Amino acid sequence: MIDLVADVVRIQRKSGNGPITVHCSDGLGRTGTFCAMFTVLERLKAEQVIDVFSTVKTLRIQRPGFVNDIDQYEFIHKAALEFVNTFNNYDNFKLTFC
């Protein structure tokens, strides 16, 4: 999934940083999971902070029902952890968990 996010970022940059359309069958569960994961990873890169709770809460203000079960919520945490583990060799990468 981390590779998918990297591909989306790369394609978005090539196309002029326009909006990204993401949709699943109900437009909530898997769509919300992808959007939350994408947002968490982008914030992690920019601010070195992981705050899945606040990210999901903010997204739910705009779209109630995003990330609608515990498995999806846990998946976002695992994706962030996988992403962080790619930086194990970098001593200057300091991380804050919220």
Tell me what the structure shows.
The chain has helices spanning 2-14, 29-47, 52-62, 70-85; strands spanning 49-50, 96-97. It is mainly alpha-helical and 98 residues long. A two-stranded parallel sheet has the order 1-2.
Strand order of the largest sheet: 1-2
The number of helices is: 4
Strand content: under 5%
Q: Low-confidence segments, ≥5 residues, pLDDT <50?
A: none
Number of strands: 2
Structural class: mainly alpha
Mean pLDDT, to the nearest integer, reads 84
Number of domains: 1
Give the SSE order as H and E letters: HHEHHE
Q: What shape does the CA trace take?
A: globular
- N-to-C span: 22 Å
Q: What can be said about the biggest beta sheet?
A: 2 strands, parallel
Q: Architecture, according to CATH?
A: Alpha-Beta Complex
CATH-defined topology = Protein-Tyrosine Phosphatase, Chain A
Helix content: 55-70%
What labels would you give this structure?
Protein-Tyrosine Phosphatase, Chain A, 98 residues, 2 strands, protein tyrosine phosphatase activity, mainly alpha, PTP_cat, globular, two-stranded parallel ribbon, 4 helices
Task: Explain the layout of strands and helices.
Layout lengths: L1 H13 L14 H19 L1 E2 L1 H11 L7 H16 L10 E2 L1
Parallel strand pairs: 1-2
Helix pairs in contact: 2-3, 2-4
InterPro entries: Prot-tyrosine_phosphatase-like, Protein-Tyr_Phosphatase, PTP_cat, Tyr_Pase_AS, Tyr_Pase_cat, Tyr_Pase_dom
Pfam families: Y_phosphatase
GO molecular function, one term: protein tyrosine phosphatase activity
